[in-house]
Specification:
- With 284 residues, the chain is an alpha+beta fold.
- It is 25% helix and 25% strand.
- The protein has two helices and twelve strands.
- Helix 1 packs antiparallel against helix 2.
- The radius of gyration is 44 Å and the shape is elongated.
- InterPro entries: Ca-dependent_lectin.
- Keywords: Signal.
Length: 284
């Protein structure tokens, strides 16, 4: 841009010289005389009263304006480059700060039936499922994921036992598709998982895949206590559930039964009568 300005100024200066330059000698009015060839090839002197000073003033003004315009355009380009570079650097900094902040943010969820977390999620703690005894008429109704390293309270004499272990009630006639009856009467493990860079968690009953835009943590079967027992919460138990250990004592407590659908008020289709109830845990 600056080379272009210099070239323009040089051209205009040359033009100024051709008009204003001294092309003869010995005549005080020579600067006002323009010599030019005639059509017949003869040489003659053509005199004209030219206002050279006024022409020079116009040329100077024109050159000044062109140089000023050139510098303004050049400065505008430079300023645009500076602003664009500044915006880019600011955006990069903002994105880096947001990413650093998001690295510490996330959601937690319980993975029922497994001791560990899915790939990509951090484990907060592993434990065993606990809850209220299936015959108790009052108290809590939700399942709990109890850590394997509890900090126990003091012994008490009052009678309000509500925290029991959880067991699979899985037998040959009562089990989800693909599960082994050997899971029956075994205690249920669990894990509390932390998924970074997520802000929402959603448990979808009746599906094994997440909707578009959501990330699957795990899928499985929806389970709860038996219909003749006191109510328990629903839990999405991992499709690849495992026992807590090899102990097999039928000690009951908070029980896990597989569920099935019942058509009527539940519309079939789209649902199917007397089928396993699937579930999926999704994050976003």
């Amino acid at each position: 841009m600056f080379l272009s300005i210099i070239a323009t100024a040089y051209t205009l200066s040359l033009l100024f010289f051709l008009v204003h330059g001294n092309t003869c000698s010995g005549d005080s009015n020579c600067e006002d005389i323009v010599t030019m060839p005639l059509l017949d090839g003869l040489r003659a002197t053509l005199k004209a009263d030219l206002d050279v000073k006024n022409m020079n003033d116009h040329l100077k003004t024109y050159i000044s304006l062109e140089i000023k315009k050139g510098f303004e355009n050049a400065m505008n380009d430079v300023m645009k480059q500076i602003v664009n570079k500044g915006i880019k650097e600011i955006n990069t900094t903002i994105i880096a700060v947001i990413q650093e902040s998001l690295a510490e943010k996330g959601v937690t969820y319980i993975r029922w039936g497994r001791k560990g977390c899915p790939a990509g999620a951090d484990i907060v703690y592993t434990g065993q499922v606990g809850g209220n005894l299936y015959t108790n008429k009052g108290g809590g109704v939700n399942y709990l994921c109890l850590p394997n390293d509890p900090e126990n309270g003091q012994h008490q004499s009052y009678g309000n036992d509500q925290l029991y272990g959880g067991e699979y009630e899985i037998f040959s006639s009562v089990k989800p598709a693909g599960w082994s009856e050997s899971m029956g009467n075994k205690e249920v493990p669990c894990a509390v998982c932390f998924q970074k860079r997520r802000t929402n968690i959603l448990v979808i009953p009746g599906r094994k895949t997440c909707y578009e835009g959501w990330h699957e943590e795990y899928n499985g079967y929806l389970m709860s206590d038996h219909i003749i027992h006191n109510k328990k919460d629903y839990a999405c138990v991992d499709i690849n559930a495992e026992p807590l250990d090899n102990k097999n004592g039928d000690e009951n407590g908070a029980l896990f039964y597989p569920l099935r659908t019942k058509c009527g008020s539940l519309r079939c289709p789209p649902y199917t009568n007397e089928a396993d109830v699937l579930c999926v845990v999704c994050t976003k």
